[in-house]
Amino acid sequence: MKGEIGRGDRLLALDEMSRDPTSAFIEARDISRTYVAIDGSANTAVLPTSFSIRAGEFICILGPSGCGKSTLLLMLAGLLAPSGGEIVVEGKQLCGPHKKFGMVFQDAVLFPWRTVQRNVELPQEVLGIPRKRRVTKASEMIKMVNLSGFSSKFPHELSGGMQQRVSIARALSLEPTLLLMDEPFGALDAMTREQMNLELQRISLETKATVIFVTHSIVEAAFLADRVFVMSERPSTVSHIVDIEIPRPRPLALMSSDQLGKYVGQLRALLGSMESAL
Question: What's the confidence (pLDDT) of residue 61?
C-alpha cells in the first residue's frame, strides 16, 4: 500500500521514475493548450507542463478557479488535443479518446428515460457487448457503488449523490485503467460530499484504477490524493506537486486531524502565494 512506503523509499522511487520514463503509466511531455478565436486572437490556457503518473495512483488537480484544471484533464482524457507536446500512455502516444479510460463530470449526465441499470449498461451497449454480459457487469458496478435495490429506478427518483454514484458505476462498467473526474462532487451538500469521498476511496482501492480528480476543495484534495498537482494562475502550469504520505484507507475523522491539517496548510499556502503575487 502506498501510504506504508517510507519517505526515503518514496523519494527514491520518484527519482527512479524520473530517470526511467518507461515506469510511468502516463507521461505528459511539455503539453500546452492555446485556444484561437474566430478573429485570430490566441488565449493560452495551459503553458508547457510535464509530469508522470504511476499506475494505481490517485492524483488530485487543485488550482485557482478558471486556471485550466478542466482543460488539463480533457487533454489527459484524449478528448482535447494539446497545442504542443505529447501525452504518452504505457509507452504509446495518446491521439484521441482511449477505450480504457472512464470519465465522470460534475453533472451526472444520465438519460432520464433510462433506468439506473440501463444507464450503467450504456457504454457497453454502444460497444456492442452482448446483452447478458452487459447486464451482469452493470449489476456488479451498481452493487459496487452501493445502489443495490435501485436498478429499476429512474434518475428523477434519486438524490444528487445517488445520481453521481450511477455516473461512477457507468464509468467503471468498462473496467477502465484510468478514471478521470471533473469536480464530480462540487454540487453536493457537505455531508453527502464527505460520504462520496469515502465511497470513492473505497472504489479506487477495490478497482486499483488510476484516478485523476479535479477539485476546488483543498481538504478534499488532501484527503483523497496520493499526490496533489497544484496549478498556477492562468495561463497555468503544474507549479508544485505535494505528496500526501498518509496510509490508506483514510477514515472520515482524518479530515479534522492535525495529520491532514499539515497538508491542508501546505496546499493553502501554495495557493495563497499565487494570489499574493498577482
Answer: 97
pLDDT digits (tens, 9 = 90+) for 99-157: 889 999 989 999 999 999 999 999 999 889 999 999 999 999 999 999 999 999 999 99
| Spatial contact of 53 and 25, defined as CB atoms under 8 Å apart | yes
Report the alpha-carbon distance of residue 66 to residue 70 in Å, rounded: 9
User: Which of 21, 99, 107, 72 shows the shortest CA–CA distance to 212?
Assistant: 72
d(CA 114, CA 163): 12
Q: How many residues does the chain have?
A: 278
Between the alpha carbon of residue 264 and those of residues 89, 123, 214, 217, 250, the distances in Å are 30, 37, 16, 10, 15
Taking only the tens place, the pLDDT of each residue in 16-43 is: 444 444 478 999 999 999 998 888 888 9
Residue 49 neighbours by CB distance under 10 Å = 23
190 in helix, strand or coil?
Answer: helix
Nearest to 201 by CA among 54, 22, 60, 37: 60
Alpha helices in 81-189 (DSSP H): 116-126, 131-144, 160-172
Q: What is the mean pLDDT of the chain?
A: 89
Q: What is the pLDDT of residue 275?
A: 54
Domains of the chain, start order: 2-100+176-276 (3.40.50.300), 105-175 (no CATH)
Q: Which of 56, 3, 17 is nearest to 212 (CA)?
A: 56
96: buried, middle or exposed (CB in 10 Å: 19+, 13-18, 0-12)? exposed
Q: Which of 76, 36, 10, 39 is nearest to 214 (CA)?
A: 76
Peptide bond into 48 cis (omega under 30): no
* 2 pLDDT higher than 90: no
Helix (H, G, I), strand (E, B) or coil at 200: helix
Distance between alpha carbon 6 and the CA centroid of its chain, in Å? Answer: 25
